[in-house]
Description:
Structural class: alpha/beta
Mean pLDDT: 87
Number of strands: 10
Strand content: 5-15%
Low-confidence stretches: 116-134
Helix content: 55-70%
Amino acid sequence: MLVGRTLELDVLNASFRQMLEGKGNILFLTGEAGLGKTTLVHEWWKTVAPETAIYAEAACSIPVGNVDVGRLEALQPWADIVAQLQGHEEQGKKKLDLKKLIFDSAPAWAWALPIVGGIAHGAMETARLVKEQQGDNNPNAQNQQQVFQQYVNLLTKIADETPLVILLDDMHWADVSSTNLLFYLSRQVATTKLLALVTYRQDDAVAQNEGKGHPILQVKNEIIRYGGKEMPLTYLGDAAIREMLTQVFPGYQVNDKFERWLRKISDGNSLFATQYVKTLHEDGLLDDSGAFVGKYDDIKIPDSALAVVTERTRRLSEETRELLTYATAEGEEFTSYVLEQLTHKDTMQLMKELQVASKLSVIVQKGNARMYANQTTGIFGFSHALFHKALYDSLFDMQKEVLHRKCFELLKTEWERLKDSNDPALSLASKLLTHAEKCGEVESGAEIALQSARKAWLTYAEPEALEMLGHVMRLAQHKETQIEEKKRDTLLGEALLLKARIDGFRDRYDEAVQTSAQTLAIFERMHDEITIARTLNIRSTIFRNNDALAESESDARRALVIAQTIGHKRLEAMAEYNLACFYLATGAFEEAREHFTVSMQLYEAVGETGGVETALNNIGSSYNMQGLHEQSIQYFKRSLVLHASSGSSDRAAISATYNNIGTAYQSIGSLDEAMDCFRQSLSLNEAIGSRGAMSVVLCNIGNIYFERKAYPQALEYYTRSLKIAEEVRRPLLIARALCNIGAVYANAGEFEKGMEFFQRGLAIYETIGDGSELVSVYANLGSIYRNRGEFVQSREYLSRALAIAEEKKMKDKEAAAMCELGLLSEREAAGYTPEEKRTTLNTVVELLTKGTEMYRALHMENTNDVKEYNAALKRITETLL
């Protein structure tokens, strides 16, 4: 029932009209429990022509047994939206081909497609995406930003075809990652035909997170700051109370006194008012026409909406009440399958009784999309969270324990069926974890939490993964229930190892090293050589990513010895790969290629094409770094061929390979081929939402135009790169784009404007302290000043470049800075006396000789720059002779 919401309906209609014009938005509907936020949306949607837009909704899970399960269900509300969108393909209407859309633009979300019989609905391509996401990582996304961008891609592509309205209900119970995705969507919704409606309760949101508040509060403020809207639902006024009574009692005659009394005791809360009117009618205090026939002084007034709802549940028939109290054990949302098992009722009898509860507006049916025991089950939910709370709280503790155990046994069977599928089943896991703990199944709870953490991390949902890992550690060390020592150590070790990987991925170097050391100690105590070698390999990667190369090499060698001893080829391949990366980072290219080749052969032996492809790419990169571009292209192309033959849909790796080939082609002057590769890479990155990689490739395309002196086109691509880099907040990419723009202006004759961009980029590099990029920028500035004849400034920047290169032991950049200083000295010598000129040119020869010899030692003598330096050395030597 919807009364007194004319203003709110006007706001919804206005937002909908604006969305149809391509002005999408996020609209928050806020208010306390019982004000009818969800009802408002449902009744409003009935007034919108169903053919004009697609509608989908998801509700965040309310607490089960007073445990906040929603915060553990990483991205589940957004996955539920996908499941509802799937329904718009039914009956051959084909309003949207969701499977194709996911394959093309959101491959990391293949898991969200509904599951039937253990496999996803959909085409062979989608099934392949599903299979690829069952390993230790997600080849369809490299970070959570890409996961988010792919979802935005999906929604916007749907909205391009058919306007889209989504409802996210009860966001004060949502997980952190879901809340973050909402914010991410808000930054790109303004020019789409997409309207997102979000409901939450302010009081509950403030009380979350041990009083620190739910993140939806901060996210809402940020979204509103960027153009989102908020519509607080007001309490029902006198006119609305009258309208409600008129709807309930068709023969109602206006009674001002009764209406004011009802308005006062309910405080305008619609749930309180509507449910209490039913109670008064049943008690004979309101007749069939709604006339009040009682005495106000004799009525005991409930003190809250919960009290009214509690009284309403007491008036249910004993049979219906018992049925629904059983249902509360599963949660605010429950299934006919579980309830059937709990009550031992025949399916038809159960449905008949649920139909009675539905007619009483205590529960609502939510569809039949979920599978239990390979059969479709009906999904139901309590019409309001207060009905669930009132019924659950009416159970004795022993009743709760018995029901939770039965739920645990039923849901654990389903969990076992789904745990190896594409479906993270985090909604099931969070509830199963609650049931396990409440019935004392501590070991099972820890195992479920560990598996859930791994699946949450597949979408880079860090808060939820870490919280699940916290449950593993807490339950594994549970004092009251003893877990067998080996099992406990295995759980703790695996939990710590995943935490180390997460910390390493998030650049929390100290924490990652400390945690991996704890992991290693546990597995060494267990004498488990496989897990020891696996931990060493992971820690080797952590060390390498933080420039601790000696430590990285040491762990890789230890892992290699163990893997060879026990004959574990996969771990041996990982160790060889880590050693190869160590040699590559230290400039020992031949040794790096040897180890990459061994790693590749081992990966081939165990059938891991991803490892083979990665090794081929790295071998290609090692040749590229030496300036042996023809060889590098051969290896990059072999990697592409393998991608195609294996049917891999790892578009991040494929796009990176195209980018590498493009860079190599550019280095040998094949600019058309380079441009083709860069455009292929850009297209793939757009599809998977890899916006950081898009910024890099856009810069590379700009570089092609720059080399062709097509400065307007170069500026266009550099500017696009800068815009994306600023949107994704990647300082290094911002600095790179700024310096490239500076180079365009400087070379186009607008030197002062060019220097402005250079200095902005330089300031970022200096703040970050990125030595490699600083050397390059200083060298570029030195070259520009030299070409302008401003030798003092040129020497200043080239000297800075040389100093950093020497300090950081960056031999190739040290050689470049020496040679550039040599060429600068040659230019300076033009105005010297013959004797001074000869002395200076001798110094130039020394610098160029030393620099080119360093290049030869690095096997980089074939690069275009080195060829130029050698030509200058020959020319100057001949002049001296």
